[in-house]
Amino acid sequence: MKAVYKCLQRLGGAVRGDDAQRASHGNVERTFGVWYGDLQVGVLKEALDGWRFSYSEDFLKQDRVRVIADFPQKEKSYAMKDLWPFFASRIPSLEQPKVQKQIERENIDSGDKGALLERFGKHSIANSYTLAPAR
């Protein structure tokens, strides 16, 4: 994809910065399930134009687990260009030597938040939700 981006640049095609970043990440779209115990709370999706979060049907039907503070309206589908802090906090500091070694060993693009979330984001000390890549 980087080659496609460079070719477009040479031909004078306008490519936004986000498109360039996405091209370097291979146009990957990822979907994560957000879980609280055995209840799927919602779905987080990474798409070409940013991130989306919505609550699951099972979550909407129950009343035992409260909404996530960053997403107060159950019926709303949320969209944001960058990853919400609620999820971004699951990615460890890239300055940690142990994290740097894992990224290098597993050939993870350190600029790809979706890949970092997939690798490091399952659990967080900040909350009791689990994030699991959808297969």
Automatic annotation (TrEMBL):
One Pfam family matching this protein: Couple_hipA
Residue intervals of the HipA N-terminal subdomain domain: 34-124
Protein name stated in the entry: HipA N-terminal domain-containing protein
